[in-house]
Design brief:
Blueprint lengths: L2 H7 L5 H11 L6 H15 L2 H11 L5 H27 L13 H4 L5 H15 L2 H13 L4 H33 L1
Helix pairs in contact: 1-2, 2-9, 3-4, 3-5, 3-7, 3-9, 5-7, 7-8, 7-9
């Protein structure tokens, strides 16, 4: 499956997603690694098999094995961190003063440029809705020289990939309901 076959699965009522997916696949403000990794991390964070397969088929070959592993690791570690730090942020109290006591070694040694890994972590954090992580990763990528346009591009990728996943899941659910009726 490719991005083109994924776009073909998007219903007409969501044609804006189809158009956005196509334009973001050709985004030029990010490096090829940043672009491909943003797509891969976002697809995995969106938890949809069809979207993940299409994105991995399209963008996986554009990444080195190390970068592909790092994009997957960003989705994985942020799946944990976004839950934990969203709790800390929303509940407040003394939790922010306690050590997390969760292993996060990949953040220190992701196997790719730190800024790329942080950008992918930012995209995943946008999908998972963790404000504390969004602020932290945005601050880090900006400190490493990324522009607001580059940050916005990664978050736009996350938003569109997640919306495509939700749309496809909704269509599959509707089809299952129609068959049962």
């Amino acid at each position: 499956m490719s991005i083109e076959s994924l776009k073909a699965r998007i219903p007409d009522y969501a044609k804006d997603l189809r158009l956005n997916l196509g334009s973001l696949a050709n985004e030029t403000v990010l490096t090829q690694q940043q672009l491909a990794g943003s797509f891969v991390a976002s697809a995995l964070a969106s938890r949809n098999e069809i979207v993940s397969q299409a994105v991995l088929a399209e963008f996986g070959p554009k990444l080195s094995p190390e970068a592909l592993d790092a994009a997957k690791a960003a989705a994985s570690i942020m799946g944990m961190n976004n839950i934990y730090y969203r709790f800390v942020h929303l509940v407040g109290g003394d939790y922010g003063n306690l050590p997390a006591r969760l292993r996060m070694n990949v953040i220190g040694k992701p196997g790719v440029d730190k800024v790329d890994f942080e950008l992918w972590s930012l995209a995943v954090s946008a999908i998972n809705g963790c404000g504390m992580c969004l602020e932290s990763h945005e601050k880090t990528v900006r400190a490493h020289g990324l522009t607001t346009e580059q940050v916005q591009a990664a978050v736009r990728i996350a938003a569109v990939v997640h919306a495509v996943a939700a749309t496809i899941e909704g269509e599959e659910s509707a089809a299952t309901i129609a068959q049962a009726a």
